[in-house]
Structure formats: C-alpha cells, structure tokens
Amino acid sequence: MKYEIAIPEFAEGAEEINLRQWLVAVGDTVKKGDNIAEAATDKISIYIESPADGVLSAILAQEDDRVLVGQIIGEIEG
Amino acid sequence: MKKDLIWIDLGLISYEDAFVIQEQLHKKCVTKTCPDTLLFQENYPVITLGRGTHEQNLLLTPAELLDQGIALTAVSRGGDISYHGNGQFIVSPILHFDQYVKGAHQYVRCLEQVVINLLAHYQLKGKRIKGRSGVWVVEPETGEDKKVSALGIAVSHGVTLHGISINVNPNLDHFKAIIPCGIADKGVTSMEACGCPPISLSDLREQFILAFDEMFGTHTTKSTIDEIVSHKR
Questions:
Q1: Alpha-carbon distance A25 to A27, whole Å?
Q2: What residues of B are in contact with residue A38 (Cβ under 8 Å)?
Q3: Contact at CB, A12 and B103, closer than 8 angstroms
Q4: Structural domain harbouring A41
Q5: How far, in whole angstroms, is CA B46 from its chain's centroid?
Q6: Total domains present in chain A
Q7: What is the Cβ-side half-sphere exposure of residue B36, based on CA atoms within 13 angstroms?
Q8: In this predicted model, what pLDDT tens digit does every residue of A8-44 receive, in sequence order?
Q9: Sheet holding B71-74, edge to edge
C-alpha cells in the first residue's frame, strides 16, 4: 500500500516554506513516526514524520524546493 | 480549565549542556512522561548557526571568536545566525503547541506578543517589523529600530524546541562578530541600553511566566530537572 508524505497542516500561515533536507534516501526502511524530512520557514524548522512503516519509494520534492502546506513531497510503500 | 505547565531554570550553563537537557525533556514530552515545560537558561558566550544560516553572516574566524571567549556551534532550530551570552534571558518552551494555538505560525506570533507584553511591564515599547521575526524597540540614543529579542523554533513530533532570547544587558560588542539573523541594516540592542534599570534574570523570569500564562491560558509552576529525570507515570 502507498502512503503519501505531506507538508503538515500546522505549518499553515507561514509566508514561505522550503524543503530543507531529506533525512532518508529512496529505498531506506522507515517506521511510522520517524522524522524523514525537514522543512523550514524563516523561523521554524519542521520535522516531517513518516506516515507508515515501510520503504521510502519516491521523492516528489527536492531539497531547497519551495513547498506548500498539504503538498505531497514523497511516498512510502508499506 | 487552565493547562498545567512546569518551569525549570538551568541557570548559567553552556549551550551544549543545556541542549542535551532540552533534547531529553523533548523526548519525555513527546512520550508524555513529563508535562509541557518552559526551560530557562543563561548561556556562556556562543554563536549558534541555525538551519538557515548564510556563511557570510559570520564575520570572524573560529580562532578570532576563541580569542574573545566565544564558542561556535550548529543547532537544529530554524533561522540564521545568533549570539547567546551572559546577560541574555533565554526560554525554550517545550510543549505540544497545537494544544494552545492553531498552527506553528500563530505560536511564533503569540510568543512575540508575550515578549512585547513583558517589555511593556518594564516601560519599553516593543514592536514587530513586517517581514522580520523577533521583537524590536526604538533605541533612545540613536532613534533607530533595533532588535531586542530573537526567536527561532523547531517542531518535532508535534512538540516544540528552542524559543526566545531577550537581551537584558549582554555585551553588545559580541554581536559585532555576526550579522544577527542575517539582517545587515538593523542593529541589536538590550533592555538596559534602552534605559531599563538593572533587572535580575529571576525577576524577568517571573514576569515572563505571568505574561506567558496570560497569553496561552496556562498555569505554570516550578519544577527541577532532577524531579523530571526521575519522573515516572
């Protein structure tokens, strides 16, 4: 089953959000709740958690990309 | 009903030692084995490099910093480069922010408002400047807007880390080692440089807690790090 990784709703209101870095690579095994990516506004670092146990199967946004709340940035195959 | 928080004051401590404690508290807070916490500290002189640091904002070499007794360390908060040192009030709220406000952005703005309200208690008029985080005052001597309080937070597993610093009476010359927060055209000041009589950090802490509790609808009581480390539920 495929699970989408999204920029969390709690980042709503920030003028600009950048995907700072991926903390795992495609093919890596992750557990639900692991921090797998980091996004940032001008004053807030936001750690993005894996939505499920599985393997990071796709990266849909690259480091330094500007991203939006709710945007799907990757997928977990679980 | 008001939500109960605790506060812990680490006193004067190195940034690194305090951050180890902060991470331990964060883990406990995530697993709800300790209450949401306001962690206070004062650091020995250190320059911290946030995740958004631009190298050109560090104006001295590590060796030159060492000569001035200033350490250098990379940190996990957002934002650019910052200085911390004696005479600076630092508070890191470690809490499930979404239980108090809607969204991380609103949380940051509420923290800024707590600082503005706190400064008002000391007859200082703090303000925001559009597009720039932190709290600013007009420095009487120059008539210029200067930053008196910086802010940078991280959110992991729904719980915040890092927080706010307020310049009470730090050595402002130390800020010349950096372009604080990457803002080149605005300077940094302190409460004392703006005419405040000497303030103890413990008095400021008491006033901060009052202002925080009023803003977030909380009830914050004292604890110690030993009580939390041994805390079990």
A1: 6
A2: 51
A3: yes
A4: 2-77
A5: 14
A6: 1
A7: 19
A8: 988 877 778 999 999 999 999 999 999 999 998 878 8
A9: B71-74, B46-49, B81-84
Q: A33 to chain B nearest CA, in Å?
A: 7
Instruction: Tell me the pTM.
Output: 0.90
Judge: A45–B104 Cβ closer than 8 Å, yes or no.
no
A70–B contact, CB cutoff 8 A? no
- From A62, A51, A69, select the one nearest A11 (Cα to Cα): A69
Sorted by where each begins, the domain ranges of chain B are 3-229
Positions of B marked active-site:
181
B79 touches chain A (CB under 8 A): yes
User: What is the C-alpha to C-alpha distance for residues B157 and B80, in angstroms, rounded to an integer?
Assistant: 23
B192 burial level (CB within 10 Å; 0-12, 13-18, 19+): middle
Which residues partner with B71 through β-bridges? B46
Q: What are the tens digits of pLDDT across the range B144-162?
A: 999 999 998 999 999 999 9
A36's CB contacts (< 8 A; 6+ apart) are: A5, A22, A23, A24, A30, A48, A49, A50, A56, A74
The class level of CATH for B3-229 reads alpha beta
Specify the CATH number for the domain of residue A40: 2.40.50.100
ipTM for this prediction: 0.92
DSSP string, B106-173: HHHHHHHHHHHHHHHHTT---EEETTEEEEEEE-TTT--EEEEEEEEEEEETTEEEEEEEEESS--GG
User: What residues 40-69 of chain A have any CB closer than 8 A to a CB of chain B?
Assistant: 40-47, 49
Contact A10 B103 (CB under 8 A): yes
